[in-house]
């Protein structure tokens, strides 16, 4: 047990010393709490400032004649906007002139929190910011000790925090761009002959943007659209052009086949007409043959009858002649 106690004491010292020596810090919380670090234009947010780990005995007051009297919160609220254009592999950016509002609050030296309302009473159109650009609001806070003689004392803590601003025009803009993306990607991935197209990649981009739009993470959706528009869209459209060329070649080939088929059909019709003429001629010749054959048969029968008659007549005449000869002899 005597060997374990020093270890326990050492552990307790390691835990409590950092807590005792921690520097003062400021925490900023908005209510209602922004989702995805986004605040809405024309919205009102209660801003709660909390001073943590403040211990007056740890503040160096060397050089000040007065005694600590109160805490001063100097707050600067800044609106800023920016955009950019891409030219191939190069990008140029620009920024709007920031708009700042400075406010100051004082509070008891023993107090550790204050609250104020943040009014975002202007939307993008009043700042002339376009939906494809970005704007944000930044709160910079510096907390000082105010001395009893009115002199600003040492800096206690500082904090800077920013939120992206969104509005209804930006949402409508992104919904339109998502519709464009969906049409382009589904059209390209639906072409079976684009074997080199990474369908999984583009469908993943589409699903990612759709998911962020559904969740309301509009800044992330905007970044996805910009990356797609800058980098992936050209490759996708080129793939569609190649598919169109392939389809055009296939159509040309089919047109040639159709032309050949039309010619073959015309040749078949001509051959059919010739066959009909030959068939008619054959029928006529066949009828003539049967008629002539019938006439020949009749002629044969008549000739045979005539020959028979002549033969019989000859015999008759022969016997008549013989009989007359016999009579003369007698």
Descriptive report:
Among the domains are: 25-166, Immunoglobulin-like (Sandwich), CATH 2.60.40.1930; 173-260. The protein is 52% helix and 28% strand. The chain has helices spanning 4-21, 124-127, 168-189, 199-215, 218-329, and strands at 25-31, 38-40, 44-52, 68-87, 90-95, 99-108, 113-119, 134-147, 152-166. It starts with a helix and ends with a helix. Residues 1-20 have low confidence and may be disordered.
Structural class: alpha+beta
CATH superfamily of the domain at 25-166: Macroglobulin (MG2) domain
Q: Architecture of the domain at 25-166, CATH level 2?
A: Sandwich
Secondary structure: number of strands: 9
Nearest-integer average pLDDT:
82
How many alpha or pi helices?
5
Distance between the termini: 192 Å
Order of helices and strands: HEEEEEEEHEEHHH
The CATH class designation of the domain at 25-166 is Mainly Beta
Q: Any chance you could write out the topology, listing elements then pairs?
A:
Elements: H1 4-21, E1 25-31, E2 38-40, E3 44-52, E4 68-87, E5 90-95, E6 99-108, E7 113-119, H2 124-127, E8 134-147, E9 152-166, H3 168-189, H4 199-215, H5 218-329
Parallel strand pairs: 2-9
Antiparallel strand pairs: 1-3, 3-7, 4-5, 4-6, 4-8, 8-9
Helix pairs in contact: 3-4, 3-5, 4-5
Keywords:
rod-shaped; 330 residues; alpha+beta; Immunoglobulin-like
Summed up:
With 330 residues, this protein is α+β, with helices and mostly antiparallel strands. The protein contains five helices and nine strands.
